[in-house]
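In response to a reviewer's request, we include the raw inputs and outputs for one of the modeled complexes. The four entities were modeled together in a single run.
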Amino acid sequence: MARNIHRSPVMADVARLAGVSHQTVSRVLNDHPNVRPETRDRVIAAIEGLGYRRNSTARALVTKQTNTLGVVAFDTTLYGPASTLYGIERAARDAGYFVSIVSLRELTRDDLAEALDHLGRQQVDGLVVIAPQSAVAVALSQMPQPVPVVTVEGDADVGLPVVNVDQRRGGVLVTEHLLRLGHRTVWHVSGPQDWLEAEGRIEGWRETLLAAGAPVPEVLTGDWSPRSGYRCGQRLAGMADLTAVFVANDQMALGVLRALDEARVRVPDDVSVVGFDDIPESEFFAPPLTTVSQDFSEVGRKAIELLLDALAEEHEPARPPGEPPGGPAEDTPPPPHVVVQPHLVVRRSSGPPRAA
Amino acid sequence: MARNIHRSPVMADVARLAGVSHQTVSRVLNDHPNVRPETRDRVIAAIEGLGYRRNSTARALVTKQTNTLGVVAFDTTLYGPASTLYGIERAARDAGYFVSIVSLRELTRDDLAEALDHLGRQQVDGLVVIAPQSAVAVALSQMPQPVPVVTVEGDADVGLPVVNVDQRRGGVLVTEHLLRLGHRTVWHVSGPQDWLEAEGRIEGWRETLLAAGAPVPEVLTGDWSPRSGYRCGQRLAGMADLTAVFVANDQMALGVLRALDEARVRVPDDVSVVGFDDIPESEFFAPPLTTVSQDFSEVGRKAIELLLDALAEEHEPARPPGEPPGGPAEDTPPPPHVVVQPHLVVRRSSGPPRAA
DNA sequence: AAAGCTGATGTGAACGCTAACAATTAACGC
DNA sequence: GCGTTAATTGTTAGCGTTCACATCAGCTTT
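The model returned the following structure tokens for the whole complex.
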């Protein structure tokens, strides 16, 4: 009686069919040299005949590599994180890795610790953490890291490899654009101040104003949501000398546009509005939004690139021979920091001030 | 010399420290009964003392369960899929599962096959496939399924468990809303016709019009993007008798609003516009958009619920005793089909027609 | 022609865990 | 008091790979 009819084939089955040992099958599978072509063909035929697929669990047990990368993300319903995640997933899969994801409910130390614990249980080979708050990056750096970690939009000063978009530069681009159009100064609706992205955009904006000798207005702070933008917009609508606003993301910019519209302030005739992110919708706002475009997929790709580098380094330590391990403190190179440049997309929401 | 200083502890280490056998450690870890409380405490102390963590790979090898669920998604940069994914991830993690994700580049049979192959290699215990096109659902149903599968937004007639939002009902809600406001008929900008969601919304819309004896205008077809909505909006702006439009998603609705605005058609005074999805932005469109809200997280949760049920069933087949396995064709229950109800969110983009 | 090498293959152990069974002890009933 | 049973623990054997090493032919080398 063939009672094993439903058991999926293992290496030994393939070996038997091909008339070789299981080890030879393993050699074929792992592209070892020193297998006679004829034997190789026979093994491959047996593999295909049986529909054999290597058991990755058993393999992981002995190689101690799961071929899985963990990704810790936050609020993946937003366009930016979602795009970054997509870029990461794609690059990782192209490199032959599985991607295990954990979305943080909240950007807290506990949630982060839980996420790392979860992925740790799964024995991921490496980790990408989207850490947009300085506190998160710091917390991360203080946790034990049994595997290589790359952060995205994280804090470069925290001692971990980082990939991020040059937020400061984005702020500069926007502010210069508006000043060049003839505006005396530019107001700013920022994201939450503990977010690194918000901070960078503020910096770029402030520096540019200062460099131009323009007055630096008080910063209005939102929380990235359209609603918070709307509230800030209502406050802005009451300002007499307002001619230009830089809003830290497109969603809030939408809220600002709405508030200005309700207050009968015309954009761009009365006030210029510039956003940040270039979400697919922003081209169709009323009016189409001038904004800053970030290549999120590129960020994801770079993050995986860095992680794979770290993984490779882990396996060939490349320690200079004769150097006793753990000996004199070699000057280890600083962790890599990849910066992706954003660019300005000019649309109709920005123009010269009315009474120039 | 302690040469193993960096080797992470295994069960045997814990056993040695606690003065028991490794099997007893295993029993403690798996909450087996019949372990003396005192022994249990000693083991737990040893585990904590050593910082021991069970090796999930070794465990998976023997239990043949990876505790990982695979998710196949498409275009996760969109709000809907991203939210669904989030719901899935959250529910799966709460249930103690890891989540491995694959985003399809394209909605093709080949891409799907590759994704399933990828996840198959990883030996996932179960699969959630977001299959918004009928063709995808069909292709999926024809592929070998070594593990339980649940589809989301898939085709209920294809023989696989499904969780979806009642799109038809959504179309009905919108159309009834507009007719009740006094519109003679309602135009429709649909999604791509091979998408099940697009189809369901069209159906609900058409049925409602027919039931009310209202004329059924030609359907304009978009591709979910704001740009396609804009193009359709331009065409609509030229229609003389237009008073109401149902747009199949909020992004396209934004495009329609933009086109109407450019054509000096006022919303809702001249034309009412209703969307679908209730993305966070839609409340701040000009004007705020009446739309249909779908509980994507609920969809994700339900999908995992179904999958876990299937997984549990797999292990306790619950076959009536005396019934020979593979014997007479028992009338297997139809695959479960969970439907989540959407609801209408009325905002300012819809109102009574001008010349009522 | 003996020794040495190289290429091709096989054998046994190990990875760290759980399942099945065996063994030991304590408790119980008549 | 002794078999019977239940509770607790240990022993052994895998799970399906890869790694380290052994083997064995067929060549070269001197």
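As requested, we also summarize the result in words. The CA atoms of residues 70 and 226 of chain B lie 31 Å apart. The longest strand of chain B covers residues 68-74.
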